[in-house]
Write a structure and sequence with these properties.
1 helix; globular
């Protein structure tokens, strides 16, 4: 997952910004998350080497007690072209509020 981020990339969640991308995802997998799906709904170019996008995400797994974990929500991202590939410079994720 960290390979999808540009050098200096940032992931922002309700817990705050993280620049230690590899450790962030390693901790997520250690907590039991083992599946991540991200969709891109709209993309807007900002320049020849930069774009912004909005979409949604869904991640699932099981915690240490075997309880199912499922988190879905919205995402925004800024992408930059690095070495000919689009990489995430900044991604923010906002979980959906559970239905009552």
């Amino acid at each position: 997952m960290a390979a999808l981020y540009a050098d200096g990339g940032v992931h922002i969640s309700p817990a705050g910004p993280r620049t230690d991308i590899e450790e962030f995802y390693r901790g997520s997998f250690k907590a039991g998350l083992n599946y991540l799906e991200i969709s891109v709904d709209d993309v807007w170019p900002v320049g020849a080497e930069t774009a912004v996008a909005i979409g949604q995400f869904r991640t699932t797994g099981k915690n240490q007690n075997g309880r199912v974990i499922e988190i879905s929500g919205y995402s925004t991202a800024t992408y930059v072209r690095a070495d000919g590939k689009w990489k995430v410079r900044m991604m923010s994720t906002i979980p959906k509020t559970p239905a009552k």
